TrEMBL record:
InterPro entries: Mechanosensitive_channel_CS, MS_channel, MSC/AndL, MscL_channel
UniProt-annotated location(s): Cell inner membrane; Cell membrane
Any one Gene Ontology cellular component term annotated for this protein: plasma membrane
Pfam family, one: MscL
PANTHER family with a match to the protein in the record: LARGE-CONDUCTANCE MECHANOSENSITIVE CHANNEL, MECHANOSENSITIVE CHANNEL MSCL
SUPFAM superfamilies referenced in this protein's UniProt entry, alphabetically: Gated mechanosensitive channel
UniProt keywords, alphabetically: Cell inner membrane, Cell membrane, Ion channel, Ion transport, Membrane, Transmembrane, Transmembrane helix, Transport
Signal peptide residues on this chain, from the entry's feature table: none
Membrane-crossing residue ranges in chain numbering: 16-37, 78-96
Record protein name field: Large-conductance mechanosensitive channel
Subunit structure: Homopentamer.
Principal localisation: membrane
Family: Belongs to the MscL family.
Amino acid sequence: MSVLSEFKAFAVKGNVVDMAVGIIIGAAFGKIVSSFVGDVVMPPLGLLIGGVDFTDLAVTLKAAVGDAPAVVLAYGKFIQTVIDFVIVAFAIFLGVKAINRLRREEAVAPSTPPLPSKEEQLLGEIRDLLKAQNKQP
């Protein structure tokens, strides 16, 4: 089998396509969450703590000299990223929790046992006839 045909077999498998769709949707979801955190959550939070914008929090380790840029420790961006992560993780947790609840409800739902097939019914009748014959003296 050639490398090209092996790659084609790998690339068109359902799992790979599902994974690609999941990654694309995850990236889009990440943008939504980043916007939610940056544009909705952080402004009121910054107002509550005195108008501080976390993304602007930084410590200059070395000032700019000539053409060399300043060396800055931008810990505010890190705080923003951690908050983004916590919100994404919580949203995923809620989603997985809801899916697990639905699965449990499906598993608990009583299902009617399947009717025996014609063969099983015939075998049951034969069994009953043989029992009846053995009981007769």
